[in-house]
Design brief:
Blueprint: H1 7-31, H2 36-78, H3 84-128, H4 130-137, H5 156-162, H6 168-191
Helix pairs in contact: 1-2, 1-3, 1-6, 2-3, 3-4, 3-6
Length: about 190
Protein backbone atom coordinates (compact mmCIF):
# COMPACT_ATOMS: atom_id res chain seq x y z
CA UNK A 1 0.00 0.00 0.00
CA UNK A 2 1.13 3.52 -0.60
CA UNK A 3 -0.53 5.19 2.36
CA UNK A 4 -0.33 4.76 6.13
CA UNK A 5 -2.13 1.66 7.31
CA UNK A 6 -3.89 1.18 10.57
CA UNK A 7 -4.01 -2.24 12.15
CA UNK A 8 -7.75 -2.48 11.56
CA UNK A 9 -7.58 -1.44 7.89
CA UNK A 10 -4.77 -3.91 7.21
CA UNK A 11 -6.64 -6.81 8.80
CA UNK A 12 -9.91 -5.93 7.06
CA UNK A 13 -8.07 -5.83 3.75
CA UNK A 14 -6.10 -9.03 4.38
CA UNK A 15 -9.13 -11.06 5.45
CA UNK A 16 -11.39 -9.71 2.68
CA UNK A 17 -8.83 -10.15 -0.06
CA UNK A 18 -7.85 -13.58 1.26
CA UNK A 19 -11.42 -14.87 1.15
CA UNK A 20 -12.02 -13.28 -2.27
CA UNK A 21 -9.03 -14.92 -3.95
CA UNK A 22 -9.77 -18.32 -2.40
CA UNK A 23 -13.35 -18.23 -3.72
CA UNK A 24 -12.13 -17.26 -7.18
CA UNK A 25 -9.29 -19.79 -7.20
CA UNK A 26 -11.74 -22.59 -6.37
CA UNK A 27 -14.34 -21.56 -8.97
CA UNK A 28 -11.67 -20.97 -11.60
CA UNK A 29 -10.07 -24.35 -10.89
CA UNK A 30 -13.33 -26.31 -10.81
CA UNK A 31 -15.44 -24.47 -13.42
CA UNK A 32 -12.83 -22.44 -15.34
CA UNK A 33 -14.90 -19.37 -14.57
CA UNK A 34 -14.67 -16.19 -12.49
CA UNK A 35 -18.18 -15.08 -11.60
CA UNK A 36 -19.46 -11.49 -11.86
CA UNK A 37 -21.62 -12.09 -8.79
CA UNK A 38 -18.36 -12.24 -6.80
CA UNK A 39 -16.13 -9.72 -8.60
CA UNK A 40 -18.54 -6.79 -9.06
CA UNK A 41 -19.62 -6.51 -5.39
CA UNK A 42 -16.00 -6.96 -4.29
CA UNK A 43 -14.93 -4.13 -6.60
CA UNK A 44 -17.61 -1.84 -5.12
CA UNK A 45 -16.66 -2.88 -1.57
CA UNK A 46 -13.06 -2.00 -2.45
CA UNK A 47 -14.09 1.56 -3.25
CA UNK A 48 -15.99 1.77 0.05
CA UNK A 49 -13.01 0.27 1.90
CA UNK A 50 -10.60 2.82 0.43
CA UNK A 51 -12.85 5.79 1.25
CA UNK A 52 -13.65 4.63 4.81
CA UNK A 53 -10.15 3.61 5.87
CA UNK A 54 -7.86 5.73 3.71
CA UNK A 55 -9.92 8.66 2.45
CA UNK A 56 -9.33 10.27 -0.90
CA UNK A 57 -5.68 9.30 -0.94
CA UNK A 58 -6.65 5.63 -0.61
CA UNK A 59 -9.22 6.03 -3.36
CA UNK A 60 -6.55 7.50 -5.64
CA UNK A 61 -4.10 4.68 -4.88
CA UNK A 62 -6.87 2.11 -5.31
CA UNK A 63 -7.71 3.74 -8.65
CA UNK A 64 -4.07 3.56 -9.75
CA UNK A 65 -3.99 -0.09 -8.69
CA UNK A 66 -7.13 -0.66 -10.76
CA UNK A 67 -5.57 1.02 -13.80
CA UNK A 68 -2.54 -1.26 -13.54
CA UNK A 69 -4.30 -4.54 -12.65
CA UNK A 70 -7.33 -4.17 -14.88
CA UNK A 71 -5.41 -2.34 -17.61
CA UNK A 72 -2.67 -4.92 -18.08
CA UNK A 73 -5.09 -7.83 -18.05
CA UNK A 74 -7.46 -6.04 -20.41
CA UNK A 75 -4.62 -5.68 -22.90
CA UNK A 76 -3.76 -9.37 -22.50
CA UNK A 77 -7.44 -10.23 -23.04
CA UNK A 78 -7.69 -7.88 -26.04
CA UNK A 79 -4.88 -9.68 -27.87
CA UNK A 80 -6.58 -13.02 -27.23
CA UNK A 81 -4.29 -14.43 -24.57
CA UNK A 82 -6.41 -14.16 -21.45
CA UNK A 83 -10.00 -14.54 -20.39
CA UNK A 84 -12.47 -11.89 -19.28
CA UNK A 85 -12.69 -13.43 -15.82
CA UNK A 86 -8.98 -12.80 -15.24
CA UNK A 87 -9.51 -9.14 -16.12
CA UNK A 88 -12.43 -8.83 -13.68
CA UNK A 89 -10.51 -10.68 -10.97
CA UNK A 90 -7.54 -8.32 -11.15
CA UNK A 91 -9.77 -5.26 -11.49
CA UNK A 92 -11.68 -6.04 -8.30
CA UNK A 93 -8.60 -7.14 -6.39
CA UNK A 94 -6.43 -4.18 -7.33
CA UNK A 95 -8.85 -1.59 -5.93
CA UNK A 96 -8.30 -3.13 -2.51
CA UNK A 97 -4.53 -3.56 -2.86
CA UNK A 98 -3.51 -0.23 -4.34
CA UNK A 99 -0.74 0.41 -6.82
CA UNK A 100 2.39 -1.14 -5.25
CA UNK A 101 0.73 -4.29 -3.95
CA UNK A 102 -1.02 -4.81 -7.30
CA UNK A 103 2.32 -4.64 -9.11
CA UNK A 104 3.69 -7.12 -6.55
CA UNK A 105 0.78 -9.50 -7.16
CA UNK A 106 1.27 -9.24 -10.94
CA UNK A 107 4.97 -10.09 -10.63
CA UNK A 108 4.44 -12.90 -8.10
CA UNK A 109 1.54 -14.44 -10.01
CA UNK A 110 3.66 -14.46 -13.17
CA UNK A 111 6.39 -16.31 -11.26
CA UNK A 112 3.84 -18.79 -9.90
CA UNK A 113 2.52 -19.35 -13.44
CA UNK A 114 6.03 -20.01 -14.77
CA UNK A 115 6.99 -22.39 -11.96
CA UNK A 116 3.60 -24.14 -12.00
CA UNK A 117 3.62 -24.52 -15.78
CA UNK A 118 7.10 -25.98 -15.73
CA UNK A 119 6.12 -28.45 -13.00
CA UNK A 120 2.93 -29.50 -14.83
CA UNK A 121 4.79 -30.02 -18.12
CA UNK A 122 7.67 -31.82 -16.42
CA UNK A 123 5.30 -34.17 -14.59
CA UNK A 124 3.31 -34.78 -17.77
CA UNK A 125 6.47 -35.70 -19.71
CA UNK A 126 7.52 -38.11 -16.97
CA UNK A 127 4.06 -39.67 -16.65
CA UNK A 128 2.84 -39.66 -20.26
CA UNK A 129 5.87 -39.06 -22.44
CA UNK A 130 6.94 -36.19 -24.66
CA UNK A 131 4.65 -36.97 -27.59
CA UNK A 132 1.40 -37.13 -25.57
CA UNK A 133 2.37 -34.02 -23.61
CA UNK A 134 3.05 -32.16 -26.84
CA UNK A 135 -0.23 -33.37 -28.34
CA UNK A 136 -2.23 -32.20 -25.32
CA UNK A 137 -0.64 -28.85 -24.57
CA UNK A 138 0.55 -27.73 -27.99
CA UNK A 139 -2.29 -29.07 -30.12
CA UNK A 140 -4.12 -26.52 -32.26
CA UNK A 141 -6.90 -28.67 -33.65
CA UNK A 142 -5.27 -28.77 -37.07
CA UNK A 143 -5.01 -32.10 -38.79
CA UNK A 144 -1.58 -33.02 -40.14
CA UNK A 145 -1.32 -32.98 -43.95
CA UNK A 146 -0.59 -36.69 -44.04
CA UNK A 147 -3.99 -37.52 -42.51
CA UNK A 148 -6.01 -36.01 -45.41
CA UNK A 149 -8.86 -34.83 -43.16
CA UNK A 150 -10.52 -31.45 -43.25
CA UNK A 151 -9.43 -28.82 -40.78
CA UNK A 152 -11.69 -28.62 -37.70
CA UNK A 153 -11.41 -25.57 -35.48
CA UNK A 154 -10.54 -26.22 -31.88
CA UNK A 155 -13.53 -26.41 -29.55
CA UNK A 156 -13.78 -24.59 -26.22
CA UNK A 157 -13.49 -27.93 -24.41
CA UNK A 158 -10.25 -28.68 -26.26
CA UNK A 159 -8.88 -25.24 -25.41
CA UNK A 160 -9.65 -25.78 -21.71
CA UNK A 161 -7.96 -29.19 -21.77
CA UNK A 162 -4.90 -27.59 -23.37
CA UNK A 163 -4.60 -24.93 -20.70
CA UNK A 164 -2.02 -25.65 -18.05
CA UNK A 165 -3.69 -23.94 -15.12
CA UNK A 166 -6.48 -21.48 -14.39
CA UNK A 167 -5.07 -18.06 -13.53
CA UNK A 168 -7.15 -17.73 -10.34
CA UNK A 169 -4.82 -20.16 -8.54
CA UNK A 170 -1.52 -18.27 -9.08
CA UNK A 171 -3.28 -14.98 -8.33
CA UNK A 172 -4.49 -16.43 -5.02
CA UNK A 173 -0.99 -17.67 -4.14
CA UNK A 174 0.57 -14.33 -5.11
CA UNK A 175 -2.06 -12.31 -3.22
CA UNK A 176 -1.60 -14.38 -0.09
CA UNK A 177 2.20 -13.98 -0.37
CA UNK A 178 1.99 -10.19 -0.77
CA UNK A 179 -0.67 -9.82 1.94
CA UNK A 180 1.28 -11.91 4.46
CA UNK A 181 4.38 -9.86 3.64
CA UNK A 182 2.41 -6.64 4.26
CA UNK A 183 1.12 -7.90 7.63
CA UNK A 184 4.60 -9.03 8.74
CA UNK A 185 6.12 -5.74 7.63
CA UNK A 186 3.40 -3.79 9.46
CA UNK A 187 3.86 -5.77 12.68
CA UNK A 188 7.66 -5.50 12.60
CA UNK A 189 7.67 -1.77 11.85
CA UNK A 190 5.14 -1.02 14.58
CA UNK A 191 7.05 -3.03 17.20
CA UNK A 192 10.23 -1.02 16.58
Amino acid sequence: MDFPLTQLSLYVMAISVGIFVIINAVTDYKNHKIYNVVTVPFFLLGIVYQVVFNGWQGLIWGGLGFLVGFGIFFLVFAVGSGKAGDVKLMGALSVWLGFKATVGVLIMSTLFVLVGSFMILFWSVIRRGTRKTKDQYLATGKTPKSKKKKYKPETDKQKLARGLMPFGVPVALATWSITIWMVIKFVVLNES
